[in-house]
Amino acid sequence: MPFLRQAIVAAAGISLYGRWYQGEPMPTPRSGHVAVAVNGLIYCIGGFDGVNWLGNNEVYDPVSNTWRTVAPMPTPRDSMAAAAVGGKIHVIGGYGPNGALDTHEIYDPKTDSWTTGPSLPGNKRFYLMAASLMGRLFVLGGYDGINIVSAARSYYPGSTNWLSETDMLNGRYLGDAVAIGSRIYVIGGTSSTATNLNESYDPTTRTWRTETPLPGGKQGVKIVNLNGRIHALGGQGYDTLHQEYDVSSMKWTARAPLPLGRDQFGAAVVGEKIFVIGGYREGQYLNRVDIFTPFEG
Question: Counting Cβ atoms within 10 Å, is residue 234 exposed (0-12), middle (13-18) or buried (19+)?
Answer without folding.
Answer: buried
